[in-house]
Design a protein that fits this description.
Shape: elongated
Structural class: mainly alpha
Number of domains: 2
CATH class of the largest domain: Mainly Alpha
Number of helices: 14
Strand content: under 5%
Largest sheet: 3 strands, mixed
Helix content: 40-55%
CATH architecture of the largest domain: Orthogonal Bundle
Radius of gyration: 23 Å
Order of helices and strands: EHHHHHEEHHHHHHHHHEE
Distance between the termini: 46 Å
CATH topology of the largest domain: Fic-like fold
Number of strands: 5
């Protein structure tokens, strides 16, 4: 029993003693998962924090800075685990430039291109909508590995056998799925994903673990799996997970992370891994909630301005007449004044003059819509 699911040291007993670990064939994939009271309580807390983050409104500049921090941190921790030499500050500089001009396709050196590829993957929408199939996984892998120098063909399942080896001493610690079964195992996992009875964190964590165990590509499996994890928890309802820096919480205790992946492979006991992931995500949500709440502009607004700001977040372009319907107690002149004040605060933007003026919530990521 895990006493403190948020403390990495609480998982010290979950280690593998018999190496190499071998992937267990799972066709059909139908895991039996035990979700304890601690896990359920943590997940409900995450759900509530995600809901409250929806209610926070920031200036466009503050929002961009904070989401840039989250993306930079998550990507840095994911790629540095696999050997990318760029520091967190260097990753943030690349991310800042990307958010400024949206340029992704111009070729750079491998480590820089890898950061841009991850940013593009994390920010894309429609290509990764559920339901997923093998083509979805292939697109993710191809996008994050293209032009980076990572061994293997981007978007191509491996055609050789694989061993996971410690580079320092050549120790073989894991033998993934045999190559002849890779596509069948991926189909089985994806079939399960489409009908998973579990919540967002459990579903994404189980998928991530099994993806890593199959190891379908020659290289880039960890990066692809973690990118898929990010996308999945948002697809399954935690829309504000993108604001949270949880890769650091998961990957900083690196030995614990790898021990738990191996332990789950060896025993088919998912509970410790699920508790570890939900604890890390809960901590990341708590941190994000504090940071965003401190920047929340709604705290300093009158009720009418709050109503307009909150409603504008749900609309596309709107007019003064539209906003007047949201606050019927105020005349159009006062509505115009409040809209102009919100524009000065960098909460909404306006376009046009006099009667043709229209407004919308100022989303600094509008440039990515449709990409």
């Amino acid at each position: 029993m895990i006493i403190n699911y948020r403390n990495p040291d609480a998982y010290s007993e979950y280690k593998v003693t018999n190496y190499p670990i071998r992937h267990k064939r799972k066709v059909p994939f139908s895991p039996q998962i035990k979700l304890g009271a601690e896990y359920r309580k943590a997940f409900m807390n995450i759900l509530e924090m995600d809901r409250k983050l929806n209610e926070v409104i920031l200036s466009a500049g503050d929002y961009l800075d904070l989401i840039n921090d989250a993306y930079s941190s998550n990507i840095h921790w994911s790629v540095s685990t696999e050997g990318n030499p760029l520091t967190l500050n260097e990753v943030r500089r690349i991310s800042t430039s990307f958010f400024k001009d949206g340029n992704w396709e111009e070729k750079r050196d491998g480590p820089t291109q890898e950061i841009l590829n991850h940013l593009y993957s994390h920010l894309r929408g429609d290509p990764y909508r559920m339901p997923w199939d093998k083509d979805t996984i292939i697109r993710i892998h191809k996008t994050i590995t293209e032009n980076t120098g990572i061994p293997g063909t981007p978007g191509e399942f491996r055609r050789t056998e694989s061993e996971l080896v410690d580079e320092k001493d050549g120790f073989v610690y894991m033998i993934p799925c045999p190559r002849k079964f890779v596509e069948e195992e991926m189909d089985s996992l994806l079939d399960w994903l489409r009908t998973s009875p579990y919540d967002a964190v459990a579903t994404a964590t189980i998928f991530f673990h099994e993806f890593e165990s199959i190891h379908p590509f020659k290289d880039g499996n960890g990066r692809t799996g973690r990118t898929a994890f990010h996308i999945l928890i948002q697809e399954f309802g935690l829309k504000n997970a993108k604001l949270c820096r949880f890769e650091e919480e998961i990957l900083r205790p690196r030995n614990t992370y790898y021990d738990l992946l191996g332990y789950t492979d060896a025993t088919s006991d998912y509970e410790p891994l699920l508790n570890y992931f939900v604890g890390a995500i809960e901590k990341a949500y708590e941190s994000a909630s504090k940071i965003f709440d401190a920047k929340n502009v709604l705290k300093d607004l009158d009720e009418a301005s709050k109503t307009i700001a909150v409603r504008s977040k749900k609309e596309n372009w709107f007019t003064i007449s539209d906003a007047a319907q949201w606050v019927p107690s105020l005349g159009k002149q006062m509505i115009r004044h409040k809209l102009n004040s919100l524009a000065e605060m960098d909460v909404i933007e306006k376009e046009g003059n006099t009667r043709s003026t229209r407004f919308r919530f100022k989303d600094p990521l509008h440039f990515l819509k449709g990409k």
